[in-house]
């Protein structure tokens, strides 16, 4: 059974890559509302050359089809006449679906969706904004960037390039172990952040340490896996992306492929290490969802299921219904 689940994971990963490649060409156009807001274009190598020639800055709107606040920002911020006029006059506006560009998604994932990045014509980052921005907030940043289009010192992004090594120096390994211990929430499970979800790296590390006889990591991994069951749809299966407010009972209802892959892999791995049947059942539940709801007629897989039944409107009531309703 475990072998079949892991086989499905590999098949899903391959299909996901195929879907992303096919989808990338049409991503920017698919998001744009006809006749409203900025004139969006896709990401390309010629963007910054055009920005230099036209003496403009570049705004990158990195979003997702399943993202509630992306829909809201489209309706409230980018449809705002003042915002749209400033973008049309002084910016090249680029819209990218993060599912279609895993490289950009990885680079800016710490900023959530939507992530709004402003560049000068050299490709240097002037501003990196996290989540929904009101018209007033975005206008202030746009005007400040136009006034001073030079990069300012800011914290690094999620993507760090480094050499691949076979082992870590003792001092660095000890520091990473210390940071892991400080980051985990041993009372509620998950990490000590506003969002609760299965963080693939920390959970896999904890399961591996548990296998080596580490009782603290074993207890945290089991608590986290048990708490995360609240983010698995009890009716149709599939894992919601995360819960907010520092708890496990305020889910955001989008179901994205990376979350499904992480849940299948981690519950399957935990079953192999801990041998508890309920862990296998969770892995199987998510795998069934992927193969029944996210699999298309041609055998390829969709990358996500939207959080909103009606774009821009919360769907809490809908997800509380049982299958018959």
What is the compact description of this entry?
The chain has helices at 2-24, 27-31, 47-54, 68-78, 81-90, 102-108, 135-147, 170-183, 200-211, 215-227, 257-274, 277-293, 316-319, and strands at residues 57-63, 91-97, 115-119, 125-130, 242-243, 251-252, 255-256, 304-305. The chain has 325 residues and is α+β, with helices and mostly antiparallel strands. The radius of gyration is 21 Å and the shape is globular.
Task: Annotate the secondary structure layout.
Blueprint: H1 2-24, H2 27-31, H3 47-54, E1 57-63, H4 68-78, H5 81-90, E2 91-97, H6 102-108, E3 115-119, E4 125-130, H7 135-147, H8 170-183, H9 200-211, H10 215-227, E5 242-243, E6 251-252, E7 255-256, H11 257-274, H12 277-293, E8 304-305, H13 316-319
Parallel strand pairs: 1-2
Antiparallel strand pairs: 1-3, 3-4, 5-6, 7-8
Helix pairs in contact: 1-11, 1-12, 5-7, 9-10, 9-11, 11-12
